[in-house]
Amino acid sequence: MRSYLDFEKPVAELEAKVEELRAMEQGGTAVSVGDEINRLQAKASAALKEIYSELSPWQKTQVARHPQRPHCLDYVAALITNFAPFAGDRKFGDDEAIIGGFGRFHGESICIIGHEKGSSTESRLKHNFGMARPEGYRKAARLMEMADRFEIPVLALVDTAGAYPGIGAEERGQAEAIARSTEACLNLGVPNVAVILGEGGSGGAIAIATANRVLMLEHAIYSVISPEGAASILWHDSTKAQEAAVSMKITAADLDRFGIIDKIVPEPIGGAHRDPAAAIAKASEAILEAFSELRGLDPETVRRQRREKFLAIGRDLD
Fold first, then answer.
1. Which of 4, 153, 206, 217 has the most CB atoms around its CB within 10 Å?
2. Where does the chain have alpha helices with state H?
3. Helices 134-149, 202-209: inter-axial angle, 10-degree rounding
């Protein structure tokens, strides 16, 4: 069953009417409703297109967090063949908020690391809503070092509200683990590409997104802190999250303008959750193009290009 966001109410009402008419039609009603169904469908499509053409930063935040939006494992299932998941950091344990392993992307070997939020209550608890603990980032660093050793490119799929802030995580060195994972990204001699699928939250995101190419889905967000967190700190009032979202410049368009990301990946009208297959296909094209641009570069050039990319952020703003 489709879940609607608050601002999608006009579309929800129209599509509900369409479903009612379809039920009547299937029930064998004597009244012909085919033309009315087509009219309402066209009206719903037009309303959806209009709404999504002018989303506010806060509305984009809601879309990025939509529970039916495709997550890391959906992309892995659709794009990666012969996927072999790896577990554990060889120091403490395994963290299922971060999925990692090796497989093939368009026939080529690839290392995949990504945040998994889960798609049901049970899986969300299992994956801790995509909020990784230190062992998750140490697993990511282990996989990156292995990929570098065997000259296998790295793909990072980012979708997290942030690293897990619990006491246990802090006791086990959350900040150090994030720093080590970020360092592992920077030290890679093989190309790495990161895709912001939904939320890109703080150090929890940058720990695997310090890449040669950073792609971002059209309605994803990427920020140093959540709008609610920023509002709580700045105004001591989390209800000002909408105002914070505007001020923080967290949308793909903003980040592209600032040079923080390299490309915006278009989403289907109505967001990735309306047509996951189409959204994943578009992301696949963008990922393939990004890796193609980096093919043939020697390790030192790959490292230098990545470092220069991040050192240049914020230096040439208008």
1. 217
2. 9-26, 34-53, 57-64, 72-79, 121-126, 134-149, 167-171, 174-187, 202-209, 227-235, 241-248, 252-257, 276-294, 299-311
3. 10
Cα–Cα distances in Å, from 113 out to 143, 146, 157, 194? 8, 12, 6, 9
Of 286, 245, 292, whose CA–CA distance to 266 is shortest? 286
State yes or no: pLDDT of 149 exceeds 60. Answer: yes
**How many other C-beta atoms are found inside a 10 Å radius of the C-beta of residue 212?**
24
Cα separation of 117 and 311, whole Å? 31
CB 256 within 8 Å of CB 196: no
Query: Which residues, at least 6 apart from 59, have a Cβ–Cβ distance to it below 8 Å?
Result: 5, 7
DSSP 8: G
The Cα–Cα gap between 74 and 123 comes to: 13
Write down the pTM of the prediction. Answer: 0.91
Residue 133, burial from CB neighbour count under 10 angstroms (0-12, 13-18, 19+)? buried
Looking at residue 31, the DSSP 8-state letter turns out to be S
User: For the segment 27-39, what is each residue's pLDDT rounded down to a tens digit?
Assistant: 665 456 777 888 8
Strand partners, 192: 154
Residue carrying structure tokens 């939020």: 117
Helix, strand, or coil here: 96? coil
| Cα 250 to Cα 58: distance, rounded to the nearest angstrom | 9
The span from the CA of 299 to the CA of 187, in Å, is 9
